[in-house]
Amino acid sequence: MKEHTVSFKNAIAGLVWVIKTQRNFKIQLFLSLLSIVGGFYFKITYEEFLVIGVLITVGLVVEVVNTAIEEAIDAIHKDWQEAIKIAKDVAASAMLIFSVGAFVIACIIFIPHIIRLLL
Question: Model-level pTM?
Fold first, then answer.
């Protein structure tokens, strides 16, 4: 049980570090909150909220993994190398791919509600 407590404390410490130091994670948190507030405002369905919840969770996870990869690479080797640049760029591209997909899905969910509100 003690190992689990230590692991949990380490995970919380990592999350606190990410929140304090990573601007992109803060942006993700803001956009997540905006999506939740928008969901209540537009009265999206339970199923739509589930999709938004999954998108938020996966987006935050991808951002944390991207940050972990970049920090691990920096800890191993700080000098510029083409292979390091490629590894960091590929890790960042995972977040880009996810963000584009999440944006499209959010548009599919929210645009009909916005149109209904305007009509």
Answer: 0.89
On whether the CB atoms of residues 73 and 88 are closer than 8 A, the answer is yes
What six digits make up the tokens of 41?
A: 């405002």
CATH of the domain at 73: 1.10.287
19 lies in some domain = no
Q: Taking each helix axis from N to C terminus, what angle separates 2-21 and 46-76, rounded to the nearest 10 degrees?
A: 90
Summarize pLDDT for 107-117 with one digit per residue, the tens: 999 999 999 98
For residues 115 and 75, the answer to whether their CB atoms sit within 8 Å is no
pLDDT in tens, 91-102: 999 999 999 999
Residue at 12 is within a domain: no
**Alpha-carbon span 96 to 15, nearest angstrom:** 21
In angstroms, the CA 103 to CA 114 distance is 15
> Containing domain of residue 106, as a range?
28-118
